[in-house]
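Notebook p. 47: complex prediction with protoporphyrin IX containing FE.
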Amino acid sequence: MDKPSRRNVLMAGGTLGAVGALSAATPAHAGSLWTWSPTGSVAGTGEGADPRWVWDEEADQLVAALIDRGDVPRVNRLLRTWTKNGQPLPSGLPADLRDFMERARRLPSWADQGKLATAVNFNEKRGLYLGVTYGFASGMMSTAIPKEARAVYYSKGGADMRDRITKTAKLGYDIGTSNAYKPTGEMVVTCVKTRLAHAGVRHLLPKSPHWSKVADEEIPISQADMMVTWHSLPTTVMQNLAKWKVPIPAAESEAFLHSWQVCAHMLGIKDEYIPNSWAEANAQAKQVLDPILAPTPEGIKLADILLNMGTLVPGGPLRYITKPILGSLTRYILGDEIATWLKIPREPLWDGVFETLWEPFVAVREGLLSLEQAPGALQKFYWAFDEILRLGVLLVLSGADLPISIEIPDANNPN
Ligand code: HEM
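Predicted complex, structure tokens below:
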């Protein structure tokens, strides 16, 4: 039996429960059923439907219609002027889009301003580590997420990776700003525009002969895919900070999670799929992220581009932080298996340096260990590690470059 397409599912009655039942009845899916319970979600309840067969119904229909009507260039032009969360939508938008965006821009009822304020503190205190982990844990991991790698490679943005990285960095930058979700901030705008861009990708990518040839799905960016990518962000970041023994008060850790829960909601992920705690997030990631990581030709090429980007980041000079060093950093953060998949060469010196000295470096920075007590070699490499932290920050800051407007695609990558 074929995978149920969204169209089939809609024709069959369209209830989410029915979708879950469909996949449950398919022996091929028996090993990978969605068993994560919505009781662990921010909604606390839900249908428990398998999110591999759920997309973003309203946004998808709307953006498909915009694309088919030829409205996208005009809409993108108008939306370039919409930059602040509290700003009215530009006049001249199609009525159906305006109506949707007015609803999509509202924060969820469960958004907690106190926690969002604590998240700001956390981002300010830990910005240095966040830059490195967003770039070399989340960013590099995304190239080992097959569905994401293929979607990114064959969509319009795949033709200009530098532009795409900057646009993606904008989200990482915006979520860390002090007014992220406030009326003067930009995170709501970024999320709503990204939600529209994703809807565009869902409509366009199935028409790409390149994507269709290699994809193992009919429509990209399901709710499950979005949660996978989400886990490559906050869940992976927090796991690394814990591994490096960065001291983080529980309230700050929870607040960071909260800012990403709100982000998930604003991107159109249903509340019943968004974990309500780190324990639930880790459990869900184990189920949805860990088993799907794998190499693809597209991911290998993207990883190579990303490793070069690190040395080209604006605001350098970072000429000492070369591609081989960033390759070793990636190997250290993501492990041998993923580094090998991504064809990152082994570096006899730097692989060992990260393995033995990164954690002491963090301990020294945190005042938990004196430089004298640390392994002697750390003194020699301290500057390089400091530069790497700076590179991470610059990568995130590249998302602050104006003008950046996330746009609805109107075509695929022609290559
Ligand atoms: C676009 C973030 C999930 C595929 C974007 C953009 C951002 C973003 C900020 C705008 C950048 C740009 O236009 O170049 C996120 C976040 C996600 C997520 C935070 C999850 C929490 C996914 C998933 C896929 C995906 C799961 C595919 C499986 C794409 C593609 C574009 C895009 C192909 C580019 C559209 C174009 O070419 O114009 N995403 N994304 N995203 N995203 Fe995502």
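Notes: The mean pLDDT is 89. Residues 6-53 form one domain.
Next step: compare against the earlier run before touching the bench.
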